[in-house]
Write a sequence for this structure.
């Protein structure tokens, strides 16, 4: 009894999904991805940080956008519901973000595939220069050839595109923090921690 | 409701402590395995700080160390000191004697080895006279060993060729103190650190070379942030981290800065007229006594603006540091190799003392010109016992007949036993050895094939077949082992008993903790055996044990201002170090010299408070030392400056520290430190291979690009035996002290 | 409310204790999560200021950092080949004692025997490594 209910539900979802996917992707393609994200996520602060980070541009001087690193989620079900109720309403407000938790999640989430779209060759950096000895050893470890260590890129490479306040004091982020301080975000859009 | 991180940690720790009692925790269990059965008092084997250590023994083996709470270090150790035990049990220990046969070191018996040594030395003396044999000792040998060797050579064999690595390290400081005060050794103590209000650190990377003293300075600065720290160093080292003023000058121009500081001090009326009127003689460079006005006139060449042109230090900064120095209530200066290893080393030493004599920052708690030593027993072992070619024990000079006569009398030898002509100083000695003019050399506790400057020429000399070198050394991988003709297995550090005397005139006893490894013998036994085989007059070596040597040395010192008659063995076993002068057993030791009521050499009812008894008129000397550049200034062909030095993880030639896995891994090989600007100009990136070229040799090092060196300067640490930076350094030396200029030579670099 | 706090605290404590035990057993097998590096790769700090920047910086700004008491003096080597056993949490009786025995004895006299210095002086935290010369910037929370 229960099983048949589930089957029916998933069938419905599939139909919904198909419809929404066609419609949704069509409308998403009209706008730049950043803007698409911004309809629901008020991420101006993050965008501002990104613009001042080492990941502002790719090697062809093209601006890097959210979905190049983050998983571009498009769940037909939630989106349908969300669009109906919250469309263009910025449901995720900066003040509600727990950036510490987010950072922890990000370090534990495997975004490797996304990173490797640009960083394919782990022996070289994106400019084609060979990485340092430590870097190559760590990358070998990442590939499972040399000891056991963190299995995600963000495990070692943190604050690559965003810089929460609590990481601004780290010496390794000095340059990033300086750049952010020199180009402050517009006051109204200053986000939470 | 919110649990803070601290609370979590606390609860976690408590819980884990419970767990530790309940379950088998490997970390805890392992540590308990190494719980020593008992502790033996000793002194750290590394730098001149001379920290007291307690050696933890279990099952007749050294298992751990801890700081001696009763010594000056109050129980603290630096990272090298804390990791000493593995060195003792290194697989590279020399455990039996070796003789070189057909170019290879072959194991031999003690008797074979020592007979060969004696026959070679005897033949050399027979064919070429006593000056054809030499002793090359060390600031790491025990006091008794240096004293004994000195006596065997100078009184027994008739050769004044007694030298040692302190010539490469401390000679300019000796020259500086003797010319300024008439007597060697600092007048203050480490305790001055706790009450100084200004620290003037010049030519010293204290943080890495004397970590425990730096820790004390840092703690002082932390306790009272108004305490000023001035660091004068072309490199922005870790020492500069706590500095209020870091002065990165052009290498070699510090003489101009020091004179300029004196100029500012006088211009600002901050000199202590009452002090220098009464206790100071002003003397020109050619030893003419002049007055204060002449000094002011001399200093006109060193206005801050003129000094800025020479040194590249802004005139304002020179003014600021001069004011800091003079306005503080008590200023202590520290310097080390940066001033000593220079062709103007003695002058640089004089100029720092000048500032103290001018301002009266001397002879009171917290104020003293303090020269730091690099080796654990350079002061106590070599400077005090006079184990250098021109010295006799307790500050006496070979060239003075009355000094020789007095010592011959004390030693009970017939007059004229000691040859009147000083021997060859280190560079001259090794030159002579390389030309086989000196035929036989006894090297103890030193690694000259690594540490001599411009070492290539000496390596060639050591390879010759017509000279003979015997080496007493604990480690098989020391560079000099490759060149010696006989290798003797020396007992190491805690395997023998004896005295170390550190920078602050403090004598501490190293008690024997464990039996020597294999066939190793203490250098005392080796030297005694050698002397007997050389048929040295038994009156010269009336010693059964090493304590007999100490007692004789106490007697010899007792008629001199050194006087450590009161530092008996019994007292040394009980106490953790005593500062000389210490004339009687109830004397607590002397923290401040040249001051009535403090220094036992000055009568209690002496008319003046200060008395510089090293000088006939009781006055210390302010010397007019002009600025003169380095021996090899950078030019169009070699436009940059090379300087060498240490890293905290390694000590000297690395034969000891390389045995500790942690230390070896921390700095496994030498590198070249290049300034960011220079690196950019030459296209050098971090980790690139860089070719270093001087007029003497060419070598390749890996680059570390940073802002530590000032532009135009490169730095290479000298511990690495595989990358002997001394192949590039210069063997020009100070005419007064005969100490070579390791710190500056001209170089060019390029990317490999 | 108060009760809940206590429960949370205790739970956190037990959790942390488990972590500790887990680590301890890990250590015994010398299977620490660490890459294998040749001797000449770098010292601990060079890598760890990147991968664990806060811990590394806390050390750097601490008294131990100013005095250059480096990581390996207390922690040993992660592959267990050092001269002291590798430990994420160093053993106070054998490690801290080398330098701090006088203080440890003083504390013991005052508060009884507690071999865990870090119960009150957590590593890389203010009380043990407090700010050497200025308010350390890495420690504001």
């Amino acid at each position: 009894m229960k099983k048949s209910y589930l089957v029916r539900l998933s069938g419905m979802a599939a139909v919904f999904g198909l419809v929404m996917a066609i419609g949704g992707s069509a409308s998403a393609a009209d706008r730049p991805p950043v803007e698409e994200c911004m309809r629901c996520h008020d991420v101006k602060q993050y965008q501002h940080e990104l613009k001042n980070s080492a990941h502002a541009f790719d090697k062809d001087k093209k601006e890097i956008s959210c979905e190049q690193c983050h998983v571009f989620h498009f769940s037909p079900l939630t989106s349908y519901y969300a669009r109906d109720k919250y469309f263009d309403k910025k449901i995720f407000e900066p003040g509600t973000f727990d950036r510490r938790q987010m950072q922890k999640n990000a370090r534990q989430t495997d975004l490797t595939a996304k990173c490797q779209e640009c960083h394919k060759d782990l022996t070289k950096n994106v400019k084609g220069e060979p990485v340092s000895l430590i870097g190559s050893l760590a990358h070998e470890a990442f590939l499972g050839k040399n000891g056991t260590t963190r299995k995600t890129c963000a495990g070692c490479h943190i604050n690559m595109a965003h810089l929460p306040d609590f990481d601004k004091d780290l010496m390794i982020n000095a340059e990033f923090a300086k750049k952010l301080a020199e180009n402050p975000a517009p006051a109204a859009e200053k986000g939470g921690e | 409701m919110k649990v803070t991180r601290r609370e979590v940690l606390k609860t976690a720790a408590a819980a884990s402590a419970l767990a530790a009692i309940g379950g088998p925790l490997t970390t805890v269990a392992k540590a308990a395995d190494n719980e020593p059965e008992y502790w033996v008092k000793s002194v750290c084997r590394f730098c001149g700080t001379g920290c007291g250590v307690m050696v933890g023994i279990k099952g007749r083996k050294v298992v751990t160390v801890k700081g001696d709470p009763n010594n000056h270090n109050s129980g603290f150790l630096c990272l090298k000191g804390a990791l000493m035990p593995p060195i003792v049990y290194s697989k590279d220990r020399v455990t039996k004697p070796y003789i070189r046969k057909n170019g290879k070191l072959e194991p031999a018996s003690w008797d074979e080895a020592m007979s060969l040594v004696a026959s070679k030395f005897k033949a050399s003396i027979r064919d070429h006279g006593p000056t054809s044999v030499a002793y090359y000792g060390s600031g790491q040998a025990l006091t008794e060993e240096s004293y004994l060797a000195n006596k065997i050579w100078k009184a027994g064999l008739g050769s004044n060729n007694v030298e040692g690595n302190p010539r490469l390290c401390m000679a300019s400081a000796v020259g500086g103190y003797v010319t300024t005060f008439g007597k060697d050794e600092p007048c203050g103590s480490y305790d001055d650190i706790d009450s100084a209000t200004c620290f003037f650190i010049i030519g010293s990377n204290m943080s890495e070379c004397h970590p425990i003293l730096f820790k004390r300075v840092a703690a002082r600065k932390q306790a009272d942030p108004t305490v000023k720290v001035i660091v004068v160093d072309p490199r922005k080292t870790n020492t500069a981290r706590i500095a209020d003023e870091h002065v990165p000058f052009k290498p070699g121009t510090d003489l101009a800065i020091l004179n300029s500081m004196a100029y500012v001090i006088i211009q600002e009326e901050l000199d202590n007229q009452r002090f220098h009127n009464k206790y100071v003689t002003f003397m020109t460079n050619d030893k003419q006594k002049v007055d204060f006005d002449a000094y002011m006139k001399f200093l006109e060449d060193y206005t801050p603006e003129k000094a800025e042109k020479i040194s590249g230090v802004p005139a304002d900064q020179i003014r600021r540091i001069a004011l800091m120095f003079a306005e503080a209530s008590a200023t202590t200066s520290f310097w080390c190799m940066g001033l000593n290893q220079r062709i103007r080393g003695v002058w640089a030493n004089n100029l720092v003392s000048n500032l103290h004599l001018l301002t009266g920052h001397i002879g009171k708690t917290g104020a003293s010109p303090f020269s730091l030593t690099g080796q654990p027993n350079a002061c106590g072992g070599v400077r005090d016992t006079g184990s250098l070619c021109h010295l006799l024990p307790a500050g006496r000079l070979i060239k003075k007949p009355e000094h020789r006569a007095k010592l011959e009398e004390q030693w009970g030898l017939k007059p004229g036993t000691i040859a009147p002509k000083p021997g060859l100083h280190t560079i001259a000695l090794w030159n002579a050895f390389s030309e086989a003019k000196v035929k036989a050399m006894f090297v103890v506790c030193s690694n000259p094939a690594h540490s001599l400057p411009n070492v290539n020429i000496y390596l060639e000399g050591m390879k010759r077949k017509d000279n003979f070198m015997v080496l007493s050394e604990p480690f098989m991988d020391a560079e000099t082992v490759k060149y010696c003709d006989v290798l003797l297995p020396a007992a190491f550090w805690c395997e023998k008993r004896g005295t170390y005397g550190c920078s602050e005139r403090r004598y501490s006893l190293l008690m024997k903790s464990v039996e020597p490894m294999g066939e190793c013998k203490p250098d005392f036994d080796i030297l005694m055996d050698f002397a007997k085989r050389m048929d040295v007059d038994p009156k010269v070596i009336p010693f059964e044990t090493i304590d007999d040597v100490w007692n004789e040395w106490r007697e010899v010192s007792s008629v001199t201002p050194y006087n450590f008659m009161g530092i008996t063995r019994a007292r040394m076993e009980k106490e953790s170090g005593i500062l000389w002068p210490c004339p009687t057993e109830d004397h607590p030791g002397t923290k401040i010299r040249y001051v009535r009521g403090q220094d036992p050499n000055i009568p209690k009812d002496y008319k003046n408070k200060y008395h510089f008894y090293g000088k006939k008129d009781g006055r210390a000397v302010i010397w007019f030392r002009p600025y003169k550049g380095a021996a090899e200034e950078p030019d169009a062909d070699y436009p940059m400056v090379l300087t060498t030095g240490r890293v905290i993880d390694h000590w000297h030639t690395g034969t000891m520290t390389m045995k500790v896995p942690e230390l070896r891994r921390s700095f496994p090989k030498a590198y070249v430190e290049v300034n960011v600007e220079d690196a950019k100009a030459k296209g050098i990136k971090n980790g690139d291979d860089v070719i270093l070229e001087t007029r003497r040799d060419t070598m390749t090092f890996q680059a570390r690009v940073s802002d530590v060196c000032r532009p135009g300067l490169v730095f290479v640490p000298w511990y690495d035996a595989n990358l002997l930076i001394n192949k590039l350094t210069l063997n020009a030396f100070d005419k007064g002290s005969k100490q070579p200029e390791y710190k500056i030579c001209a170089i060019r670099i390029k990317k490999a | 409310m108060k009760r809940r706090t206590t429960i949370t605290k205790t739970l956190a404590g037990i959790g942390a204790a488990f972590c500790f035990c887990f680590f301890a057993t890990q250590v015994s097998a010398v299977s620490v999560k660490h890459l294998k590096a040749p001797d000449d790769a770098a010292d601990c700090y060079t890598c760890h200021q990147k991968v664990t920047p806060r811990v590394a910086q806390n050390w750097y700004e601490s008294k131990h950092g100013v005095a250059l008491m480096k990581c390996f003096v207390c922690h040993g080597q992660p592959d267990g080949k050092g001269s002291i056993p590798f430990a994420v949490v160093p053993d106070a009786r054998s490690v801290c004692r080398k330098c701090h025995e006088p203080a440890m004895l003083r504390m013991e006299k005052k508060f009884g025997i507690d071999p865990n210095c870090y119960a009150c002086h957590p590593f890389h935290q203010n009380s043990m490594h407090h700010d050497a010369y200025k308010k350390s910037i890495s420690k504001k929370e």
About this structure: Chain B touches chain C through 65 residues (CB under 8 Å). The first helix of chain B runs from residue 5 to 22. Confidence is low (pLDDT under 50) at residues 1-31 of chain B.
